[in-house]
Design a protein that fits this description.
CATH superfamily of the largest domain: Galactose-binding domain-like
CATH architecture of the largest domain: Sandwich
Strand content: 35-45%
Largest sheet: 6 strands, antiparallel
CATH class of the largest domain: Mainly Beta
Distance between the termini: 29 Å
Radius of gyration: 24 Å
Helix content: 10-25%
Shape: elongated
Number of strands: 12
Oligomer: single chain
Number of domains: 2
CATH topology of the largest domain: Jelly Rolls
Length: 190
């Protein structure tokens, strides 16, 4: 019977190689509004109708248009099912009509991760991102008002690095083999 020895360093190297099988998992449903509607989202058009539009898009064919008035902003929300304690990257593109008053606040479970008031720069679409921590289920909420015009959002994303199920199995097997190899080491002579 042939016995394979795995050194401690070899086991660590194998575990690192196996762990590289992780991939970024998208947690937002319909983040680019490419269904042509707000599927996956909860909308609350408090003071002005919201729409999925084909003009003023960042990528693809559609974008979400939200507005509202300052005294009654509109909201766009999605509950994100994630892993408690894990870090995630929230990102989105925003285009703001350059008329004041306007405002956009983006929150993760009630904590603001982006906020602006009276942006009149007319810089076209701009990209924003933030690192957040999961709590099991988190609400990503866009609250917008633009009394004379609109705010557009596109390519909303929440990404987390999650190992493939096969990677987990290989990592556990590798750790088991490393442990078995360490247990079979002869004791040093006294």
């Amino acid at each position: 019977m042939k016995v394979f020895k795995i050194s401690g360093l070899g086991a660590v190297a194998a575990a690192v190689m196996l762990a590289s099988g992780a991939h970024a998992t998208e947690l937002v449903t319909n983040g680019g509004f490419e269904t042509g509607d707000f599927s996956g989202w909860t909308i609350d058009a408090v003071s002005y109708p919201m729409a999925v539009v084909t003009n003023l898009v960042e990528a693809g064919s559609y974008a979400g248009r939200i507005a509202g008035f300052a005294f009654a902003p509109d909201t766009l929300a999605q509950d994100i099912h994630d892993v408690s304690g894990q870090s995630y990257q929230v990102s989105f593109w925003r285009w703001q009509d350059p008329f004041a008053p306007n405002g956009l606040d983006v929150t993760w479970n009630g904590v603001s991760i982006f906020s602006e008031v009276d942006n009149v720069a007319n810089a076209g679409y701009e990209h924003f991102s933030a690192t957040v921590t999961g709590h099991g289920v988190d609400t990503l909420l866009f609250t917008s008002y633009n009394d004379p015009a609109f705010t557009y959002v596109d390519d909303v994303s929440v990404l987390g690095s999650v190992p493939e199920p096969a990677t987990w199995a290989l990592m556990i097997g590798g750790f088991g083999l490393a442990g078995a190899a360490l247990r079979r080491r002869p004791l040093p002579a006294a």
